[in-house]
Amino acid sequence: MEDITLEKAAALLLEHDNILILMHKSPDGDTIGSGYALCLALRKAGKKAQAICSDPIPAKYGYITDSIEPQDFEPDFIVSADIAAPQLFGDKLEVYKDSVDLCIDHHGSNTKFAKYSHVEPNAASCAEIVARLIPLLGTEIDAPAADALFTGISTDTGCFKFRNTSADTFRAAAEMIDRGARNYLISTLMFDTKSKAQLELEKRAIETIDYRMDGKIAIITLTTEMMKSTGADESETEYIVSLPRQIEGVMAGVTIKQKGERLCRISVRASDGVDASEICRLFGGGGHKGAAGCSIEASPEETKELIAEAIEKVIGKQI
Amino acid sequence: MEDITLEKAAALLLEHDNILILMHKSPDGDTIGSGYALCLALRKAGKKAQAICSDPIPAKYGYITDSIEPQDFEPDFIVSADIAAPQLFGDKLEVYKDSVDLCIDHHGSNTKFAKYSHVEPNAASCAEIVARLIPLLGTEIDAPAADALFTGISTDTGCFKFRNTSADTFRAAAEMIDRGARNYLISTLMFDTKSKAQLELEKRAIETIDYRMDGKIAIITLTTEMMKSTGADESETEYIVSLPRQIEGVMAGVTIKQKGERLCRISVRASDGVDASEICRLFGGGGHKGAAGCSIEASPEETKELIAEAIEKVIGKQI
Fold first, then answer.
1. Is residue B318 very low, low, confident or very high in pLDDT (cuts 50, 70, 90)?
2. Inter-chain contact B159–A162, Cβ cutoff 8 Å?
3. Hey, are the CB atoms on B188 and A242 less than 8 Å from each other?
4. Contact residues for B311 (Cβ-Cβ < 8 A; gap 6+)
5. DSSP string, B83-134
C-alpha cells in the first residue's frame, strides 16, 4: 500500500530474479505493450520474466507477441501493468489478487491494491511510464520493446487524438521510432484495418442512429442479432463507440450494446462541458468526463429511453 | 529555377517587405497551416504579409484564419507554400504562375516553377519545413502559428498514421504543443468530427462496396445522385476514400467519384507491394505508390469495369 518512485520500482525489480507480469483482462494495446516490453527488458537484464493475461491476446498483436518464447519458473516477484483495480485481473489471474508486489499504472482511479504502487495519472499511457522505467533497469529499449511501447502509447491516446495526448506523448513516440519501432506497420494494424464484418456492422450501426434533444444526443444500438449476423466481435465495436460523439453538434454520444435479452452495456462519450461519468453514475457505472460506461437491466428499446431521459436531465443541468 | 537552402530562403524573405504567400487550390491543412504560419511569422518580423488561395478556406479551419486581419499592399516578393506545380494555383491565382520568387514544398514531384525552390521530399509535411524556417527569420513560433503548423503536420500524415510519418514528425508535433498548439482541439476538428450528411454518405458508400479478385480489390462508387441526396460535399469524402484499402485482405482500394454523366474521378489506395501510381498512369493519371488518382470518361458502371480490369492485370504482375 506504499506509493513509490520509479527509481524505487526499478530497484525492487532488480532485487528479484523470477518476475511475473500481469496484464488486465480484455487486454488492450497499452497493457499488452507495457507488459511485453517490461518482460523483454527484464530478460535483457538477466531475469526470468513472463507476461500473462486472463484472456487470449488478440491475433492482431502478433507482431509483439510472436517472438517472445514462454519461460517456466516459480515467481518471486509479481508486477501488474496498466491494471487499475483487482476486478480487472480476470478469472485466470484471480489467484494473484492479493499477492501483487508492484503495480505500475496511469489510472487516477487506481485502488492501490499492490504492496508498492507507482501510479502516474498524468501519463497518457502506462507504456510511457515503462519507457522511462526500462533505462533504470540498466538495459536499453530494443526494437521489439519499442514496437510494444509504441503500441501502448498510440492506442491509449486513440492515435494521438485524445485529450490526454501531450508533448511528452509525442516525444515518447519519437524516441520509440528512433529505437526501432515500426510505427507505420503498427498504425496500419491498430487504426487502419477493418474486417468485412466490422464494416458491415458499421453500416448497420449508422442505420440505428437516433438523435434526441435537437441532435445534442446521438444513440447507436448494437443488438445481439446484429453482432451474430455480421460476425463482428466485441473488439471490433471500438470505432462504432466513438462514432456518435463525432457527429457535428452532438454533445453526448451513446452506444447501447445488447448483452442479453434484458441486459445492455452502455458506453457514453461526451464533448467538453458534459460529464459522461455523471451520466453513468446514475446507473451505477463510472469512468472519466469524456468517456464512461454502465449497465442497465432492460431491453435495448427500454434502455434507450432510460439513458436518453437521464442524459437530457444531465445536459440540461450542465450546459 | 535554382534550388536553395532553407537559410537562403530565409535571407530572401528578410530582404523584402511586402510578401504575398500563395496556397494551392482545394486547400488542405498543410497548405493552409504552412501559408498562415509563414504569414504570422513574417508580420512578427515587421513585414507586410498576406496568405491567399484561389478557393475559399473551409470553415473548419476558422481557429487558424479567424484572428488574421487582411493587409493591403503591393507585393515585392511572392512565395508559394505546399504547391507542387502551376496547375495547382487555381483560377484566381493563375495570374501569379510565372512570377513566384520562392517555392517552399515537400513534394518530390515539384516542377520547380519558381525562381528559387526549397523542396524537401523527405519531409512529411510542408509545415515541418516552415517550422524550421521561422526561427531563421529571427522570430519565434507563437501559439497561433503553432496551431497552424500542428494542423499541417497532423493532416498531411493522416493523424501520424501514413508511411511518411517519422520520428522527426513526432518531434515537430511535440515542439508545436510546447509552443502553444491546441492539439486536442485540432485533432477533434480534423479527425473526429463528421456532419450528418457525411455519415449518411458513409453508410451509402459501404453499401456499394464491390469486391474483386477474391477480395484483393474493393471498389466504392459515389454517384452524383448520392452526393446530392445526402448533401455531403467533396471535402467530406476523404474518409471514404481511405476506407476500401483498410478492409482486411484488400491490396487495392478504389473510390469512383462520378463527376458528370460520362466522367469519373478515381482514387486508388494501395497496400505494400502494389503500386497505385502504375495503375493510374494507365489512364493518364499519377501519384505515389500508396495513393494515386486518374479520370476516366465513362459512366460509373463502365469505369468500374475498366479500372477493375486494369488493377487485376497490375496486381497479377506485381505480386
1. low
2. no
3. no
4. B212, B213, B217, B252, B254, B268, B279
5. --SGGGS-GGGGGGTT---EEEE--TT----SSEEEE-TT-S-HHHHHHHHH
Of A7, A16, A1, nearest to A78 by C-alpha is A16
Looking at residues A142-155, what average pLDDT do you find? 98
Reply yes or no on whether the pLDDT at A252 is more than 70. yes
Q: What's residue A3's pLDDT?
A: 98
Cell numbers of B306, please? 475498366
- The pLDDT value recorded for residue B267 is 95
Supply the pLDDT for residue B210.
97
Count of CB atoms situated within 10 Å of the CB of B225: 11
DSSP B191-254: HS-B-HHHHHHHHHHHHT-EEEGGGTEEEEEE-HHHHHHHT--GGGGHHHHHHHHHBTT-SEEE
Residue A284 burial class via C-beta count within 10 angstroms: exposed 0-12, middle 13-18, buried 19 and up: exposed
Task: Write down the mean pLDDT value for chain B.
Answer: 95
Helix A143-155 / helix A183-191 crossing angle, nearest 10 deg? 40
CATH number attached to the domain at A2-191 = 3.90.1640.10
Assembly ipTM = 0.90
3-state secondary structure of A121: coil
Domains A2-191 and A196-318 share a fold: no
Q: Under CATH, which number does the domain A196-318 receive?
A: 3.10.310.30
In this structure, the dihedral spanned by the alpha carbons of residues A158, A161, A163 and A168, taken in order and rounded to 10 degrees, is 90
In tens, the pLDDT along A16-27 reads: 999 999 999 989
Task: Please check whether residue B299 touches A, CB under 8 A.
Answer: no
The residue ranges of every structural domain in chain B are 2-191, 196-318
Kindly tell me the burial class for residue B121, based on how many C-beta atoms sit within 10 Å of its own C-beta (0-12, 13-18, 19 or more). Answer: exposed
Q: pLDDT value at position B319?
A: 61
| Residue A222 phi, psi dihedral angles, 5° rounding | -110, 110
CB B57 within 8 A of CB B65: yes
Q: Which residues does chain A have within 8 Å of residue B243's beta carbon, measured at their own beta carbons?
A: 194, 199
| Interface residue of B149, B178, B246 to substitute, partner A, most A CBs within 10 Å | B246
pLDDT band at B67 (very low <50, low <70, confident <90, very high): confident
Identify whether the C-beta of residue B283 lies closer than 8 Å to the C-beta of residue B266: yes
Please count the other Cβ atoms lying within 10 Å of the Cβ belonging to residue B184.
18
> In the prediction, which pLDDT does A275 show?
92
pLDDT band at A288 (very low <50, low <70, confident <90, very high): confident
Nearest to B173 by CA among B151, B191, B190: B151
Inter-chain residue contact B166 with A177, CB threshold 8 Å: yes
Cell of B301: 458502371
**Which set of grid coordinates corresponds to residue B248?**
482486411
Q: What cell was used for A170?
A: 509525442
Q: What is the DSSP letter of A100?
A: -
| Chain B environment of A154 (Cβ under 8 Å) | 160
